[in-house]
């Protein structure tokens, strides 16, 4: 039995499941924060690409949360379900929730970057 399976049986959540649940929110928060802080600098210097790089990096961070959740989801035995009752069922639900959170926040990062692509930082 692998390390994450032993942690799940002991009632602890593996690091991969934690990351899948918080990666999307962290990426969205970093994107929102850094884009706000660097907008004036980007406008005054003409380096508009900085905002786009921030959005692309944050999108990649959010997608790593989905990927980690998918890897953790595939590690569980085929008998797990959303019904509950065992530690593996709880971890199964956490993996699904983490993947949903990561994709939702990835969409939010994309939605926040669309106006920056269309309008630019000076408008």
Characteristic key phrases:
mainly alpha; 0% strand
| Alpha-carbon Rg, integer | 18 Å
Shape: elongated
Largest sheet: none
Structural class: mainly alpha
Distance between the termini: 57 Å
Mean pLDDT score, rounded?
84
Strand content: under 5%
Catalogue the unreliable spans: none
Number of strands: 0
Element pattern in H and E: HHHH
- Approximately how much helix is present in the residues? over 70%
| Tally of helical runs | 4
Number of domains: 1
Provide an overview of this structure.
The chain is built from 4 helices and no strands. By secondary structure, the chain is mainly α. The chain has one domain (15-118). The longest helix is centred in the last third of the chain and has 32 residues, at 87-118. The chain is elongated and about 55 Å long. The N and C termini lie far apart (57 Å).
Helices and strands in order:
Blueprint (H helix, E strand, L loop, with lengths): L2 H7 L5 H31 L3 H27 L11 H32 L5
Helix pairs in contact: 2-3, 2-4, 3-4
């Amino acid at each position: 039995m692998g390390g994450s399976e032993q942690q799940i049986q002991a009632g602890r959540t593996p690091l991969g499941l934690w990351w899948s649940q918080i990666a999307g929110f962290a990426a969205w928060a970093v994107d929102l924060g850094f884009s706000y802080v660097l907008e004036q600098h980007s406008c005054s210097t003409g380096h508009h690409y900085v905002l786009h790089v921030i959005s692309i990096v944050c999108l990649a961070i959010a997608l790593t949360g989905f990927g980690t959740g998918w890897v953790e989801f595939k590690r569980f035995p085929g008998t797990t379900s959303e019904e509950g009752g065992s530690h593996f069922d709880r971890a199964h639900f956490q993996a699904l929730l983490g993947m949903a959170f990561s994709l939702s926040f990835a969409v939010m990062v994309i939605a926040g970057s669309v106006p920056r692509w269309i309008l630019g930082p000076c408008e």
